[in-house]
Amino acid sequence: MSYRMCMLLLVVLITCNFNEKVLALCADSDTLSLDFTNKGISDVGGALFAGCNPVASAIDLSWNTITALEFNAFAIYDFNNQKYVPFSQNLRSLNLSNNRISNISDKALTFSRNLLLLDLTNNSLTELKSGIFDSLPRLERLILSKNRISIIENGTFTSNLRNLKMIDLQHNQLTSMEMWPYTIKPSSMLFIFDVRHNMINQFTNNLNYTYDLEPPYKTMTYLDFNKFTVWNDTWFTQYHPHNRKRFYLSDLSNYILVMSVNPWVCDYHMCQLVSSYQSFILGDVLSRLIVCENPQELRQRPLTSLSTQVLHCNTSVPIIR
Ligand SMILES: *[C@@H]1O[C@H](CO)[C@@H](O)[C@H](O)[C@H]1NC(C)=O
Ligand SMILES: *[C@@H]1O[C@H](CO)[C@@H](O)[C@H](O)[C@H]1NC(C)=O
Ligand SMILES: *[C@@H]1O[C@H](CO)[C@@H](O)[C@H](O)[C@H]1NC(C)=O
Ligand SMILES: *[C@@H]1O[C@H](CO)[C@@H](O)[C@H](O)[C@H]1NC(C)=O
Ligand SMILES: *[C@@H]1O[C@H](CO)[C@@H](O)[C@H](O)[C@H]1NC(C)=O
Ligand SMILES: *[C@@H]1O[C@H](CO)[C@@H](O)[C@H](O)[C@H]1NC(C)=O
Ligand SMILES: *[C@@H]1O[C@H](CO)[C@@H](O)[C@H](O)[C@H]1NC(C)=O
């Protein structure tokens, strides 16, 4: 075979292969659930969805090599009206897990307004930009675990996300958390905020997940496997939007913080907390919250099992009422 013929054949082969691949992605235009896992896809955009069902409800793009979502990732160009339109108006589920996404254009999700589920597990996100999820009023589950997120801008979780039931931020690099995080109003639904396995050691209000906060709080915040060492009594009340005295006692019957497996140091810093628990019926809440890690002799003891003597408290520590 001559060199020229060989090259020609090669070109034909490559072209065929390429066409086949693109066509194969949506060989059947009836399929509602598009399985694009592990196809070596690095760019998401209109061309990828050629021949696909225009009312597809799910796209699984996990295990590809996507690094960014451009504004038109889930749009196709409508030549008649000369503008981008959603690839599918019916998209409910988008799985982008196990890619290398570090950058999401603030417009990228505006073409998928009906999403209920967004999975971005195991990508390379370092921050969440204000407004990024604002176009997703129906979103119920947002999964962002296994990224490197250390910054969440204060406009990230807003009241536009009125159907959100769960935010999964496990295995990221957060260092602080809201005392009173995002909750839905009105709602009887339990809201789950999962920030296990981060580096959180304090509550701040920098993020401002909180809005329209009214009891009863039906929120569960998982803070296990973080870096809390010292409890600060001001956390209960300091950032509370209503800032009512002792409000937190009844709040905590619905608002559940889980803070086990943190390197708690049970020493005199805990005195005020223990005193207030002795005055009120906070026992259950505290034992759930704080199990000592240090000093060694108190390891694994729930804070509530300790007397103020053991903690070397100054007996004249004022009791909060
Ligand atoms: C997304 O895809 C990954 C990998 O294929 C899978 O393990 C995960 O369960 C999917 N996410 C959801 C929410 O179904
Ligand atoms: C995360 O995704 C990368 C590919 O981008 C893969 O090599 C790695 O095994 C995944 N990690 C986990 C914990 O699934
Ligand atoms: C993210 O994408 C935007 C727009 O495409 C670009 O301006 C910005 O520089 C990118 N940021 C990073 C960190 O790559
Ligand atoms: C978000 O933070 C910026 C700067 O820290 C501040 O100016 C802005 O008012 C905050 N927005 C909200 C809604 O809290
Ligand atoms: C948080 O947001 C609320 C409602 O938008 C606003 O009133 C409040 O000032 C914000 N707090 C901070 C600390 O930015
Ligand atoms: C508790 O928080 C308040 C307000 O941020 C701060 O002034 C105080 O120093 C903190 N106390 C401890 C023991 O860290
Ligand atoms: C105990 O607390 C009181 C009042 O705060 C203070 O005057 C006193 O010095 C403290 N004693 C010790 C041993 O810390």
From TrEMBL:
Which Gene3D superfamilies does its entry note? Ribonuclease Inhibitor (3.80.10.10)
Q: Does the keyword Translocase apply?
A: no
**Which Pfam family, any one of them, does this sequence belong to?**
LRR_8
The source's superkingdom equals Eukaryota
Q: Does the keyword Signal apply?
A: yes
Tell me which SUPFAM superfamilies the record gives: L domain-like
Provide this UniProt record's keywords sorted from A to Z. Answer: Leucine-rich repeat, Repeat, Signal
State the signal peptide span: 1-24
Q: Which PROSITE patterns does the UniProt entry name for this protein?
A: LRR (PS51450)
From the Swiss-Prot or TrEMBL record, give the protein name: Uncharacterized protein
